[in-house]
Amino acid sequence: MKILQFYKYATFSLLLLNLGLIAFLLLRPPGPPNHRLPGKAIKGANSVFEFDETQRKAFRKLVDEHIEKIDGFDRNQRDLLKPYFYQHLDTNKTINEDSLLNLVLESERQKIKVTYQHFDDIKGILKPEQKANFEEFMKGALSFILNNKRKRPHPPKGKK
Known about the structure:
Layout (H helix, E strand, L loop, with lengths): L1 H26 L10 H12 L3 H34 L10 H28 L9 H14 L13
């Protein structure tokens, strides 16, 4: 009878542990979004270029600065686009759509220029023997940026 009692307590304990783990995973606050994946960029660049410690720090600084600039442009674009789309809700407001869209386009143009300069800055921290690998690095970076090869969720299954 003692073995049966042990199994009852063990089963109950494991059930409580599982429920506690599920509650922890569901109720914890979400972490910051990691849509830029700087860690992946740093690891990829380090494996391609084999940075020394000074270059690794300089590259990390460039990545952080670039992310900060791009996030600033993204915030600016969201702020610019809010009045454009909210005009559907408030018909009394009239906005100059052309000037607003030109500001959004200018912001996008600046993002492209900042990214181009970012790659020039990366090239600037490379030693002469590392510059031979720059093309490989750019192909990987551009593949990620332009093709957006991040995994997307599957579409929902349709009803039959």
